[in-house]
Specification:
By secondary structure, this protein is mainly beta. Helix content is 0%, strand content 22%.
C-alpha cells in the first residue's frame, strides 16, 4: 500500500493536514460511497487527500471493511426478495 502522507501524482510529502471533506454544493451533504447488494445498502463517506504542492486530489475511504455485508444486515426494503445470502457473498 502506498504511503498516505505522499502525493499520488508528484510524490511530495505535502499532503494538507486538517479536516478536509467532500460535500455537495447544493445541500452540503457528505458525498458517500454506497454499496447495494441483496437489498442491503452500506454507506461510507468519501474522503479527499489534497497535495499542497501540485493540487492533486486523491479519494479514499477510511475503513472499507464497513462496506462488507454481514449476516446481521437487514434489507432496506423489508419486502425485498432475492436469492439468499451465501457464504461466498461475505
Amino acid at each position: 500500500m502506498s504511503d498516505p502522507n505522499l502525493c499520488g501524482r508528484c510524490g511530495d510529502p505535502a499532503i494538507l493536514k486538517g479536516d478536509i471533506g467532500l460535500r455537495t454544493s447544493r445541500d452540503l451533504e457528505l458525498i458517500m460511497v454506497v454499496r447495494k447488494d441483496h437489498g442491503i445498502e452500506k454507506k461510507i463517506p468519501l474522503q479527499p487527500r489534497v497535495c499542497g504542492k501540485c493540487g492533486f486530489v486523491d479519494l479514499f475511504v477510511e475503513n472499507p471493511q464497513t462496506l462488507k455485508i454481514t449476516s446481521e444486515d437487514k434489507p432496506v426494503d423489508p419486502d425485498y426478495k432475492n436469492r439468499p445470502l451465501l457464504e461466498h457473498d461475505f
